[in-house]
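Would you be willing to look carefully at the protein I have copied below?

:::
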Amino acid sequence: MTKIPFIHTYDFEYGIAEPQSRLVSRITADNPGPFTYTGTGVYIVGTKDVAIIDPGPITPAHTKALDQALAGKTLTHILLTHHHADHSPMAAPLAKKHGCNVYGCPPQDEAVDGASIKLDAGDDLGFAPDIVIKDGDVFTGADWTLETVHTPGHTSNHMCFALRQENTLFSGDHIMGWATSVVIPPGGHMGDYLASLRKVERQNYDIIRPTHGPAITEVAPYIQAYIAHRLEREEQVFRALKDEHITIMDIVAHIYTNIDKRLYPAAAMSVWSHLIHLCENGRAECAGNMNLAGHYSSAL
């Protein structure tokens, strides 16, 4: 497998807004875990009138950190990459407190059919943006300009945000600094995900700031490794089918031999997304419904 140059060590401190650049600071929320790494990275963009990207979970410590970071500033925009519960719950109470709007894409129909698998970082079922956004929308402050970049794959409604002044992409869960991103059917789609990675690659950003993990400064080789890893993983799944591993959890146990078993649910989602992609491309087939409980086989 292609080795992705993950960054597993970086300095941060909970509870404070840490400067990342002239226009960007970051608060790391106190929700570390196997799906969130050190916790949700909440970005504050601007110096006086500011935007927040992915305000994170609702906890007393995180609420206090946000209040301290926003003292003396005017919060004008709350921007959401997507609606997972480690990203969006703080959005509504923060918007009410500061009198601003929440911008994002509404959740799509992403109910998981035929599954008992549950991810720790599940959906924020109550999320609803005040303003629905689309690819290419532009938001501005006194010293910043953010443009939306639609990147379906992890979820169908995933958005990244590009900061023009610093040629920086806030990548949410589309690209992470510490691990690969899970693609979650039926809303998430592996074909869309690969296309979105190539879309970001073409933009030639100088830096990527994920919601989980440290900044990525060697952008081109990182994205290329991300794409290569996904394509190689798909070939692993296909070879597992050829070896008559026919269920998703059987394939997970067969090919994910070196990961924490707490991540097996996420691995199952990725295998499922690869199987759907293989079926769409005529390389695999499913007996019955193409869901988590399906029986899959090679079509070649």
Summary: The CA atoms of residues 98 and 251 lie 48 Å apart.
